[in-house]
């Protein structure tokens, strides 16, 4: 389980701070696929970095924290921001954007699997035994064990991404974070990768967090989804419910802009562009582009609250609803 | 199949390089206004007085033959290539006539090869090790200091470092002889002892400069590698810094350094010539200096031809080794 | 300029200051009227003088003023270095650009020749050439000979730069918008190549001065020219070390060391600075 507790993070630059994540406050539960969606530059990848505890200059956590907790091998654990990196790969792992360059280009994949095995396991079993386990695991994922003898540049982009996913899940981590895992791949390969992720999640019954700008991907894969806009979490809800009944004006416009089979009417985009993260407008960040904005919207930041059971949103217009 | 094509092309480039280099040094003396034969005659005359014209003509003719200056330019060229390149025959040495240049070279060569090879390899190993630490752990104080020292030593010319070491350790402290003396005639132990004593200062001065260069280049290489995605991701995979340093940063940066080692040999050769001259170390450098003072052109030409062949061959070897250490080249 | 100074690393600053200092000594202090330090002085009481206001660094065993000899040596060494670097860079850039942009057979031939000059060790060939001219060496000839080995490396680098540039969008755009090859090279590529050439230029200066002084130690530099190398060699010839005349021996040695370290810091600092600017 990942609890995001009033987390704010910013990039330090010469010209001032860029507030990329602003007061994110929500929980990602065990045994679910949680999606984070939004336009590029809305802070979703940075949020994922903060979840994974990659807080390196110029990124900085201004306030709040992330708490990772769960149970593995009969032992329960709790880590928070600053400690999460101790549990990297064992309790939480990370799948980067599909790219040529994330694996060591000059060693065979088997040695890259062996690199990740913790010292305790190395004492318990020989490298051959470990590799046998890896082979079995790859087999279960419908990957040929021969890839272990290959170098990264000998694999296709999709194959490489499957191997990286295998690498990231081999230790059965409680949480897997995936940052645009299919973006650089073509559609057919994308589908295979998504199926693989879904199957893995069912198998491991763990938490998977998927960041993607592609709402179609979220619709197919995720159980719950969070919509981000300009560094703020705008709405979180069950994926099916959110697509059927979006509440926040931004989500409504975002989903309204999606093409649908059989619908030939003109799609309308959202007029305007996201505000600068350096000097965000006071009040709701979407207010300048929101057709339903009231004077209150540009004066006061709306609270992120539960508007109906399991459905959260940050909008003044929904104030009367929920508790 | 691809490998054979690569090998063939590389061998061809090797042969062409040597051919161009040797052609170049063949034509230089012939394009220059000064005539080595007349220079030589002038020198002999100034040493032993005027000779009569017939004697002078005979001497001139024999010198032209010795210098390989007889016949048309083309005959001279082909015979130079045929004898020099294929048989290492550069004619007799003029300073120790009539011993062939090749024979003299062969007695001096092992000293130069031994000295420069040992120091180059040592410098490569030490420098890359320190450079890796400096580049991979940028904030470590020791690595910063070592890099600073390297930057202050590397740019200094070889002979100046040699001179400074000579003045300090041989002249002021008297730990080593001012000029290297290797005792040839005595028993083996004495010979080795004198060889080591004569080699230490030259070796240290070549080593200082060489290590400096490898520290600087490895530092910037490993610094760049450390920022590559696969190193970053290795860190996200929770691998230890030691593991990342060894298998990810080091293995990727050292590939470039293998090629760089071969490319640096020309410079090392230049440097060891100068170092040998300062210390009077009995290698090719000292031989060249003697040849210059006594205008022994056959000797100079022989040395240069040999060095061109040697350096090109080392480069060739490095290029041929490369596919074996870099799988990306091997499989594509 | 202010911004440059703010962003420059300490290494770049030290290198720049040291290099400017030597340029100042070699081209400004050099202009102060002084007696020619080269000829031997016959009066015995002028020889082996300790430092004084008249002779800042004393005199040699031949009565020559060491300070002014040093100033002239710095002047001449820098001059040779700059001449060689200029020749080498100009030829190298021309050959490299031609090779990279014309391509085809010409490219292949030029590259084989260039590679040869990169691979063969320079010093022995320089020794051969200068030995042939022994006694009649001049500064210009020296510079020409040294330049023979100064063009190959820049030409190789510029060629690969030209090859990548050829594929860049802005060049293609220039090409398709009807600019001629020459115009493209002048307006689009030379500015790009310039920043790189500057660093190469300094490098070539450094290695030319090093080669000249190496040849001087072999007695192959022009015998009547005061250079840093010749000055060191003369000090050795006249047994300055044995006589423990440290100012005489050490002043050219220290000057050479400082000049090289300063130039090298300037080069590497400048390269780092460029890399940092590109990284933004």
Question: Overview of this structure, please?
Answer:
The complex is a heterotrimer of chains A (323), B (332) and C (280). Chain A is of the alpha/beta class. Chain A contains 9 helices and 12 strands. Chain A has helices at 44-51, 109-115, 119-124, 127-140, 157-169, 187-204, 215-221, 239-244, 249-256; strands spanning 2-13, 16-28, 32-37, 59-72, 75-80, 92-95, 175-179, 207-211, 224-229, 232-238, 304-308, 311-314. In chain A, strands 6-7-8-3-9-10-12-11 form an 8-stranded mixed beta sheet, with helices on both faces. In chain A, strands 2-1-4-5 form a 4-stranded antiparallel beta sheet. In chain A, helix 5 (157-169) runs parallel beside helix 6 (187-204). Chain A is globular. With 332 residues, chain B is mainly alpha-helical. Chain B has a domain at 109-293: MetI-like fold (Orthogonal Bundle). Chain B has helices at 2-31, 36-48, 53-66, 73-87, 101-136, 141-153, 158-172, 188-225, 229-236, 241-279, 284-293, 297-325, 327-330. Chain B is globular and about 90 Å long. Chain C has 280 residues and is mainly α. Chain C has one domain (17-25, 65-279): Orthogonal Bundle (MetI-like fold), CATH 1.10.3720.10. Chain C is built from 11 helices and no strands. The longest helix of chain C is centred in the first third of the chain and has 37 residues, at 66-102. Chain C is elongated. Chains B and C meet through helix 1, helix 7, helix 10, helix 11 and helix 12 of B and helix 4, helix 5, helix 9 and helix 11 of C.
């Amino acid at each position: 389980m990942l609890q995001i507790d009033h987390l704010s993070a910013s990039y330090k630059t010469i010209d001032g701070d860029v507030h990329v994540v602003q007061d994110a406050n929500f929980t990602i539960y065990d045994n679910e696929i949680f999606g984070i969606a939004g336009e590029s530059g809305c802070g979703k990848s940075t949020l994922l970095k903060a979840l994974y505890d990659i807080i390196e200059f110029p990124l900085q956590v201004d306030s709040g924290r992330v708490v990772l907790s769960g149970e593995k091998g009969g032992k329960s654990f709790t880590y928070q921001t600053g400690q999460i990196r101790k549990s990297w790969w064992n309790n939480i792992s990370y799948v980067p954007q599909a790219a040529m360059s994330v694996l060591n280009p000059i060693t065979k994949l088997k040695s890259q699997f062996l690199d990740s095995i913790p010292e305790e396991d190395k004492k318990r079993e020989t490298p051959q035994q470990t590799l046998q386990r890896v082979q079995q695991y790859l087999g279960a994922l419908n990957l040929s064990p021969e890839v272990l003898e290959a170098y990264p540049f000998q694999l296709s982009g999709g194959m490489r991404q499957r191997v990286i996913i295998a690498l990231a899940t081999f230790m059965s981590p409680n949480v897997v974070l995936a940052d645009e895992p299919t973006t650089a791949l073509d559609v057919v390969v994308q589908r295979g990768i998504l199926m693989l992720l879904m199957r893995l999640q069912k198998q491991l019954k763990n938490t998977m967090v998927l960041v993607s700008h592609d709402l179609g991907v979220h619709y197919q894969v995720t159980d719950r989804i969070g919509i981000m806009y300009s560094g703020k979490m705008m709405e979180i809800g069950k994926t099916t419910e959110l697509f059927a009944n979006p509440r926040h004006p931004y989500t409504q416009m975002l989903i309204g802009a999606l093409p649908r089979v059989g619908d030939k009417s003109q799609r309308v985009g959202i007029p305007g562009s996201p505000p600068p993260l350096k000097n965000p407008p006071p009040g709701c960040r979407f207010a300048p582009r929101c057709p339903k904005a009231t004077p209150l919207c540009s004066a006061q930041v709306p609270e992120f609250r539960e508007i109906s059971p399991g459905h959260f949103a940050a909008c003044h217009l929904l104030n009367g609803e929920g508790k | 199949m691809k490998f054979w094509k690569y090998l063939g092309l590389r061998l061809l480039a090797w042969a062409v390089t040597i051919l161009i280099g040797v052609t170049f040094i063949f034509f230089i003396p012939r394009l220059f206004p000064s005539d080595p034969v007349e220079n030589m005659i002038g020198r002999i005359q100034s040493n032993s007085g005027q000779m009569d014209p017939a004697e002078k003509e005979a001497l001139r003719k024999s010198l032209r033959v010795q210098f390989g200056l007889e016949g048309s330019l083309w005959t001279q060229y082909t015979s130079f290539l045929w004898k020099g390149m294929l048989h290492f025959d550069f004619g007799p040495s003029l300073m120790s006539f009539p011993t062939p240049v090749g024979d003299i070279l062969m007695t001096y060569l092992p000293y130069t090869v031994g000295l420069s090879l040992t120091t180059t390899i040592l410098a490569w190993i030490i420098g890359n090790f320190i450079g890796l630490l400096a580049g991979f752990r940028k904030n470590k104080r020791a690595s910063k200091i070592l890099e600073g020292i390297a930057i202050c030593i590397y740019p200094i010319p070889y002979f100046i470092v040699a001179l400074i070491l000579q003045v300090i350790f041989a002249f002021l402290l008297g730990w080593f002889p001012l000029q290297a003396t290797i005792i040839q005639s005595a028993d083996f132990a004495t010979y080795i002892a004198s060889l080591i004593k004569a080699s230490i200062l030259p070796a240290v001065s070549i080593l200082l400069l060489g290590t400096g260069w490898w520290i600087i280049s490895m530092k910037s290489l490993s610094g760049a590698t450390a920022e590559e995605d696969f190193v970053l991701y290795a860190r996200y995979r929770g691998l230890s810094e030691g593991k990342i340093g060894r298998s990810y940063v080091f293995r990727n940066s050292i590939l470039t350094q293998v090629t760089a080692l071969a490319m640096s040999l020309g410079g090392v050769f230049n440097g060891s010539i100068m170092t040998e001259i300062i210390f009077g170390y009995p290698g090719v450098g000292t031989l060249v200096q003697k040849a210059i003072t006594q205008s022994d052109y056959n000797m100079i030409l022989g040395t240069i031809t040999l060095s061109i062949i040697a350096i090109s061959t080392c480069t060739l070897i490095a290029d041929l080794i490369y596919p074996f250490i870099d799988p990306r080249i091997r499989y594509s | 300029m202010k911004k440059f100074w703010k962003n420059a690393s300490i290494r770049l600053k030290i290198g720049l200051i040291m290099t400017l200092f030597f340029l100042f000594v070699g081209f400004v202090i050099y202009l102060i009227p002084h007696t020619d330090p080269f000829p031997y002085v016959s009066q015995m009481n002028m020889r082996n003088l300790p430092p004084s206001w008249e002779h800042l660094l004393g005199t040699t065993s031949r009565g020559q003023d060491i300070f002014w000899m040093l100033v002239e040596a710095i002047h001449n060494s820098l001059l040779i270095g700059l001449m060689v670097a200029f020749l080498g860079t100009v030829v190298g850039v021309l050959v490299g650009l031609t090779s990279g942009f014309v391509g085809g057979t010409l490219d292949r031939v030029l590259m084989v020749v260039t590679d040869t000059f990169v691979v063969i060790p320079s010093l022995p060939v320089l020794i051969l050439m200068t030995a042939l001219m022994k006694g009649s060496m001049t500064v210009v000839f020296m510079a020409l000979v040294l330049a023979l080995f100064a063009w190959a490396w820049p030409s190789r680098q510029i060629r690969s730069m030209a090859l990548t540039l050829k594929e860049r969008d802005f060049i293609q755009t220039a090409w398709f918008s009807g600019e001629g090859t020459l115009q493209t090279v002048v307006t689009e590529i030379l500015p790009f190549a310039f920043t790189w050439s500057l660093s190469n230029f300094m490098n070539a200066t450094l290695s030319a001065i090093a080669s000249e002084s190496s040849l001087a130690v072999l007695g192959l530099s022009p015998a009547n020219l005061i250079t840093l190398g010749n000055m060191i060699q003369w000090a050795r010839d006249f047994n300055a070390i044995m006589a423990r005349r440290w100012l005489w021996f050490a002043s050219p040695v220290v000057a050479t060391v400082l000049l090289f370290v300063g130039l090298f810091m300037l080069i590497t600092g400048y390269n780092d600075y460029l890399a940092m600017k590109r990284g933004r």
